Amino acid sequence: MTAKEFMDACKGEISKNLIGKDSAIECMCIALLAKGHVLIDDVPGTGKSELAKSFAKTINSSLGRIQGTPDVMPSDVTGFHFYDQSQQTFIFREGPVFHSLVLMDEINRATPKTQASLFEAMQERQVTVDGEQFILPTPFMVMATQNPTDLQQGTFILPHAQLDRFSIKMPMERLSYEEELQLIRRFQGEDYNQINEVIDIDQIKLLQAKVSSVTLSEDVEKYLLAISRTTRNHESIDVGVSPRATLNLMKIAQARALVHERLFVTPDDIYQMAPLVYTHRLILKIDVHMRQSPEEVMNDVLSRVKVPVENHG
């Protein structure tokens, strides 16, 4: 199965229950192939959790789910040791993070300490509990959802270090009039449709390995770097993106090229994915927040960098 066939099959299955979410599904596929993580940020009722659950079904992956609430402890995420009297020894009980796909619903309702329990898992694909290290399965991907903090009380804003672990932060697409009408008609008296597997774990590993073979020309490399460096020198930005973020965008662009049946990255791959990869990593200057959103500042960054003209014949 090619990367495009995988993406198209995911869209076909997930669209049985979620209408008008093709771009979001594409981002999920790209993030998985790039070995990244996704933060879905939108208002309640837009299908954030359903998208994550349906995506797990398409790859026949076990899904570890954590409901973000203030009383959730780090051990509820990573697991814990308990004493087994029958064996007279301590045994480790794995937490939800030991699944290939992990959904942390409403992550910004969990306390900062619990949010931080995902740090090591997301970056190093391992967790340390009571001084003992445990390797997580491959592939491994965290999908987190959150509602905008200005709409919700009782939320904890994700710290910058945590946001930096997410390769992509994306909203859910707004439905058109026709799509919302289709949604109403589809679910009149019907339950959700069954989502079928479209790919297995071994095939995903092969596609992930193929991402590294997607090349960047020198012009595209310089374009990528120019965007990154512009965020560090922009008058509205206090802290721009890190070198890790630059590498993140490169991998995401490589994966996007692969799902569009190319073995080379185009400037458009960089241009289209940069807002999803960089915007949540920007720290704006204090006086800018009242005048501009991070999205507006990111668009201004892109407008200042000349897009190279590529000719691949």
From TrEMBL:
InterPro entries: ATPase_AAA-3, CbbQ/NirQ/NorQ/GpvN, ChlI/MoxR_AAA_lid, P-loop_NTPase
Domain of life (superkingdom): Bacteria
Pfam families registered for this protein in UniProt: AAA_3, AAA_lid_2
GO molecular function: ATP binding; ATP hydrolysis activity
Domain ATPase AAA-3, chain residue ranges per copy: 37-167
Domain (ChlI/MoxR AAA lid) ranges: 230-297
PANTHER family: MAGNESIUM-CHELATASE SUBUNIT CHLD (PTHR42759:SF1), MOXR FAMILY PROTEIN (PTHR42759)
Full protein name: MoxR-like ATPase
Signal peptide extent: none
